[in-house]
Amino acid sequence: MVTLPRDEGRAATAGDAMAVVDAHGMVTGWSEGARLLTGYTAEEVTGRPAAELVDGDPAGLWRALRAGDGAGEAVVVAVRHRDGHRLELALRACPVQGEQPSYVITAEPDERERMLGDLAFQQASMSMSVFDTGQRYLRMNEAGCQVMGQPWEVFRHRYFPDTVEDAEHSRGFLRHLEIVVETGKPVHYESWTRSPSGRRMHAWNIEMWPVRDDSGELLGTALAAFDSSEQHWARQRLAMLNEAAESIGTKLDVVHTAQQLAELVVPRLADFASVDLLDRVLAGEEPIEGRADADVELRRVAHHSLTPGVPEAAIDLGAADVYPPSSPPARALASGDVVLTRTGSPDLDTWFAHHDARSARLRDAKDHDLSLMAVPLVARGTTLGVAVFVRLLTPESPDPFDGDDVSLARELASRAAVCVDNARRYTRERTTALALQRSLLPQLMAGQAAVEFASRYLPALSQAGVGGDWFDVISLSGTRVALVVGDVVGHGIHASVTMGRLRTAVWTLADVDLPPDELLTHLDDLVGHLGADESAVTGEIGATCLYAVYDPVSRHCTIAAAGHPPPVLLLPDGTVQIVEVSAGPMLGVGGLPFEATELDVPEGAVLALYTDGLVEARDLDVDTGTAALCTALAVPAETLEDACDNVLKALLPERPADDVALLLARTRALDAEQVAAWDLAADPAVVATARQYATEQLTRWGLDEAAFVTELVVSELVTNAIRYGGSPIQLRLIRDRALICEVSDASSTSPHLRRARTYDEGGRGLLLVAQLTDRWGTRPSGTGKTIWAEQALPTAQ
Q1: At 764, is the pLDDT very low, low, confident or very high (cuts 50, 70, 90)?
Q2: In angstroms, rounded to a whole number, what is the distance separating the alpha carbons of residues 150 and 165?
Q3: pTM of whole model > 0.70?
Q4: Do 17-114 and 674-792 show the same overall fold?
Q5: 3-class SS at 69?
């Protein structure tokens, strides 16, 4: 076998590759080591000329023998291995005294191989070191010396922890060296060390393995350290970009998105970061490209710093600043590319010098240089603003921004810009939808005396946009009132437009005085038609609605619902109950009936109508939300406005995820003295009696000035009821905010207004009624119809 180098004069051991050659060059002895080295057994070689083993000219062998008579210097001789490959061996010959002169020849690998191994160790591109079992340096190559920053002589035979300053790194490294000695097994170790700047990290992959002698005894530990900093930083940049994808733009809010970008880059990329945007972006409008040589006004929307209080900021959040064309932010905005500069550059020094606040910041940092990077926020070809990243250069952290930093900043800004633009577009659409929806919601409700009401509408704080919730209070004939609340499925402008169309339809159907269940049936047909017309463009239309009619004369309420949550009733004694109504199908389903629920409501009761956004959320089920609504309504409140606030505070501590509409209506009742009713026979002779009843009642009310018009209205309506309607006939007068005359009959046929011809004997009654009163109309009843006319009370009253 090949033995390790040994000192001159050292006695050969049984494991050495040895051969005995006599004076005639014949092999007379052959060791086991020689067999292992050359492949030949002693039987194959003994008695043969040694020259036969030489590959080529045997002169080298004779020189080795002659050298054996002198200093015993090694001579390189090429020998052919038994399997045919060539071996270059360093041969040393030593004469042996005896009866016949002979020589003992020892063989070692060529010294050039040893030298090649030494050179490979020294010149290796990775750091390599050898330690003894006590973790003292035995050897270190040139790359290791460069990493440690000292020549080899400084480390020779020194204990490792005494050669490093990073105690944390020293403990981990030392422990792994000890593990190799303790276990005798190789280990893999990953280590990180900081660069002199303190910002950059050097990543190391270290392989440690035990070194043993021929007998297996552990002599020390060898290691090779691979600098994987580039791969490490590539992974870090990728991780930062992944984090940006997850953390930036989580809300469709321009300012919040900008703040997320600033907080992401500090401290991993910069010591200070700011984001300035054009005012039109904040308003949700499309930015207008300005002149490259003009000043640019930007508004600070976000900044963040390593130092609490952000002392580097020259302007406050929300404030606007003007940037001259030569300043880095203006140049970045005009060029659409990153502008990299640092202290000492004319553009940066000039910009700071002409801005008092920035000049003061520069004086505060006079002992340090600044590295500044202005990164434009460009999305879909449109520049929205500029992000400025600043790094303070100190003796402990002297690294300015480099090309890798620029690439990373450009990628981060690009992702943030897309999110900012999405938020801008959302802001524009949301603003438009809100304006449209608020214009469609009731602004000033007509005066009525049936209920006192208060309402709230809260648009959703949602990325999906404004929804289609609405409510209404509609005055009906006979001092009655309709309470309406509805919810269009979906969000955005389309939902708002659909809500406006449905609200208009409800007003139109309410003006016909349809019962709640019939009104919802007609509204269901309308939604079905709208869905059929628009499904190809916007998808199917769905909506829920609850329609209630309250009569302050009878104190009776009729309610019908189309897939809508039931109302809640707060009684005057403080008890709260959920009104059991048949929910019915959603509007647009078609083919299914709606059922009306009737109940008597005492004066002073509060009826709460709402949309599902109030009682249902991701973490709140409908039953729990409805129970919370009942509890909130039971809390005493001086006014309905206070009651609305109590409900919203209890159920919506934060802005809702869905639109919310809430309508609270406290019922009123007309006193018996305000209503007078008479049953009449179907006889033309009772018309005069009806006029008399009406005149006497007006006198009791002190409304004699209205007697003339009222007599004419009573005469025409009662005559029509007798002629075309039939029994039972009833005349009713109501004195409220207006004087109302109602005549009911058994016919379901509704009269219509027409212009009589010259020779017609009839057809002028309704025209006369319409001209003498403020409003008139007809409504169906359970047994027929009611024709009503309303006139203003005399001003003296």
Answers
A1: low
A2: 13
A3: no
A4: no
A5: coil
